[in-house]
Amino acid sequence: MPKTKPTNPAAFKQQIVELAMAGRSPAELAREFDISAQSVTAWVARAAADAGKPVRGKDVLNSVEREELARLRRRVRQLEQERDILAKATAWFAGKDGKTSSGSTNS
Questions:
Q1: Which of 1, 66, 79, 89 is deepest in the core (most CB within 10 A)?
Q2: Residue 48 · residue 55 · CB < 8 Å
Q3: 27-36 average pLDDT score
Q4: Distance between CA 11 and CA 4 in Å, rounded?
């Protein structure tokens, strides 16, 4: 099984964002706190999006948009499962009706 690091607490992420905003580089913070520079950059971009500030050349969702996207993805998955169940039930009932109607004759 691959090892995965536990997610960092929100307070830790906020502290890293504040240090980055104060002028420290993502690479420097990554070395010091044993995290990836990419994570630091993503946290800073997300904090900027949450604050309504434009992020240079990136489309970054703010926290509310990310939560809504996750909720909508869960809903789509649920609806797809329901659709699949209904399709199977329809096929089953269609097969059952076909067997009964062809087996009985009223002539």
A1: 66
A2: yes
A3: 94
A4: 20
* pLDDT tens for each residue of 45-84: 888 888 877 766 667 778 898 899 999 999 999 999 999 9
Evaluate whether 86 touches 102 at the Cβ level (below 8 Å): no
The C-alpha torsion from 88 through 89 and 90 to 96, rounded to 10°, is 110
Please give the structure tokens belonging to residue 15: 């502290």
Q: Mean of the per-residue pLDDT values for the chain?
A: 85
**CA torsion 47→49→52→54, rounded to 10°?**
120
Place of tokens 């994570």: 39
Query: 34 near 53, Cβ under 8 Å?
Result: no
